[in-house]
Amino acid sequence: MKFKALLVAVMALVLTALGATAQDLEDEARGIARDLRCPVCQGLSVADSPSQLATQMRELIRTRLEAGDSRQQILNYFVERYGESVLLSPPTTGFTAAVWITPFLGVAAAIAFVIWVIRRHPSVEDQAPASDQLSDYLAEVDRGLEQLKDQPLR
User: Fold this and answer.
1) Residues 75, 126: one domain?
2) Per-residue model confidence (pLDDT) at position 20
């Protein structure tokens, strides 16, 4: 009786492990398929494409994973067959690196320009006090009024 219970427990453990492995394999295959662009469909990943070619590619991914290939080996296989355009996120080397870096350099240059302009602009402390400028202006206005008082009305 104990032997049967032990056998059932071992079988349940083995089946659970196999189910978990199959699920991990399926998750990994889906992840790789999401990183590949379908050569037939515009803008769809292999995971989301309904085309026959995408179905074949998904099956090939599963087969290669079962054979023990790594994620990078599978991606390299498809790049060899279809070129780098098959990757939804192309590697950031050469021209694509410049395309990725240029916006960040533009933002950094804009920030540097704003800082330069702010530092060039005279601060409030460097300018003459407003009260001195106002008193000079008011004195000029008073002189003008005095000159007008002395003139007869026409």
Assistant:
1) no
2) 44
